[in-house]
From TrEMBL:
GO terms for cellular component: bicellular tight junction; plasma membrane. This is Claudin. The keyword Cytoplasm does not apply. Claudins function as major constituents of the tight junction complexes that regulate the permeability of epithelia. It is a multi-pass membrane protein. The gene is Cldn20. The chain crosses the membrane at residues 75-97, 117-139, 163-186. InterPro entries: Claudin, Claudin_CS, PMP22/EMP/MP20/Claudin.
Length: 219
């Protein structure tokens, strides 16, 4: 019962991680630059994401421009696009597989099949967490290095936006969920290897009596 509750908790974490992963991929605020200028009434907030760049004016206007050309983007943005999409796909696969493999569900067949499905789903979550952690770390590194570069003007410097923090948290949720699923199945299999079922075959009383009778005939 404790293992089933732990798997359910890991499944909830994986759901939050998957939704956060998709949200972080689509949000346009991976890096933010707030340019107040001399008049706070005309303040402008520029946001850049993986798929679009947006500008928000303090007057209430909001405009976005899609990034159609992939080859014109920096390499870290191209890598972030690919890895974040892979992370979303793997997390979706992990949710489908673990739904079959969890102990609290009636899907997946026998115990061994459910255990294998649970382990496969945990591996998908771990890979999804790694694919989500790599682009957010790389993206943050590029933002910090550009911010500390003295050759770049202040108006062109940015800070990490909410999408980066969402990606970090989602990757952590997916990693924790994957580790829980894999360890719960591994402990069960390890217990089966350490304590195998012992079957002792003792001769029946009838066989012993027959053996004694045959020996008496030879005397």
């Amino acid at each position: 019962m404790a293992s089933a509750s732990l798997q359910f908790f890991a499944f909830i974490l994986a759901l939050f991680g998957a939704f956060g992963d998709i949200t972080a991929t689509l949000l346009p605020n991976w890096k933010v630059n707030a340019d107040v200028g001399s008049n706070i009434i005309t303040a402008i907030t520029q946001m850049q994401g993986l798929w679009m760049d947006c500008t928000w004016y303090s007057t209430g206007m909001f405009s976005c421009t899609l990034k159609y050309s992939v080859l014109s983007l920096p390499i870290y943005i191209q890598a972030a696009r690919t890895t974040m999409v892979l992370s979303c796909i793997l997390s979706a696969f992990g949710i489908c597989i673990t739904t079959v493999g969890m102990k609290c569900t009636k899907l997946g067949g026998d115990t061994d099949s459910k255990s294998h499905a649970c382990f496969a789903g945990g591996v998908c979550f771990i890979l999804a967490g790694i694919f989500g952690l790599v682009p957010t770390s790389w993206y943050t590194r590029e933002i910090i290095s550009n911010f500390l570069d003295q050759a770049i003007p202040e108006s062109s410097k940015h800070e990490p936006g909410g999408a980066v923090y969402t990606g970090f948290i989602s990757a952590g949720f997916l990693l924790i969920a994957g580790v829980i699923f894999c360890t719960s199945c591994f402990k069960k299999q390890q217990g089966a290897w350490i304590y195998p079922s012992k079957q002792h075959h003792f001769p029946s009383a009838e066989q012993e009596s027959n053996a004694g009778y045959n020996l008496q005939d030879y005397v």
